[in-house]
């Protein structure tokens, strides 16, 4: 489980499928109201408080993005408390008012802080027969997006292992990248990078 602060009132939590399996949660369970999921959420909020000082009391908007074969990204945004009622402080800490949004992305999406890391990942991916993908520049990072194979899940697992070594999974959508990012290579990004930049 990896937690990072996006802003004063927003954090992002990356859960691998191993994180879920360790807690006896299937990915389908994230869509259901079950005690294990509530326990996981409480654990995430405790870790967010310990690591980042993120106080999760009051109303929360929770977005859950499922990434193919990588895990889940959970974005938690703290809302402003509207109520002026005097509430028992201990009780308030135990209650999360949550508005949950669930989205599923079919795109394998990885961010690279360093162009050299992107090149290394691309050359290794090219070595196992991967040529496709689109490359963007967004918020000082290079983002490589590749559609998963419809027929070869082991290829996708190998690709994700390579990309994870050099970059980090990201939940930014193609729509956001098209709107706010800069598209550098529209298609066959892995092949183009390997042809233009030797290792």
TrEMBL record:
Pfam families found in the cross-reference section: MecA
Coiled-coil features, chain-numbered ranges: none
Protein name: Genetic competence negative regulator
Family note: Belongs to the MecA family.
InterPro entries in UniProt: MecA_C_sf, Neg-reg_MecA
NCBIfam families: PRK02899.1
């Amino acid at each position: 489980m990896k937690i990072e602060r996006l802003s004063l009132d927003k954090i992002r939590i990356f859960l691998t499928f191993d994180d879920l399996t360790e807690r006896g949660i299937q990915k389908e369970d994230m869509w259901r109201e079950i005690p294990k999921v509530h326990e996981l959420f409480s654990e995430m909020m405790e870790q967010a408080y310990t690591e980042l000082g993120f106080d999760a009391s009051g109303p929360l908007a929770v977005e859950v993005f499922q990434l193919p074969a990588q895990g889940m990204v959970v974005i938690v945004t703290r809302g402003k408390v509207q109520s002026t009622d005097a509430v028992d402080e201990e009780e308030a800490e135990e209650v999360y008012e949550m508005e949950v949004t669930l989205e599923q992305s079919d795109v394998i999406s990885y961010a690279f802080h360093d162009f050299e890391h992107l090149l290394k990942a691309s050359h290794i991916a090219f070595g196992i027969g991967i040529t496709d993908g689109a490359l963007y520049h967004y918020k000082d990072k290079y983002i490589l997006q590749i559609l998963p194979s419809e027929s070869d899940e082991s290829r996708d697992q190998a690709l994700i292992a390579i990309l994870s070594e050099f970059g980090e999974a990201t939940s930014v959508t193609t729509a956001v990248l098209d709107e706010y990012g800069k598209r550098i290579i529209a298609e066959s990004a892995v092949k183009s990078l390997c042809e233009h930049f030797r290792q």
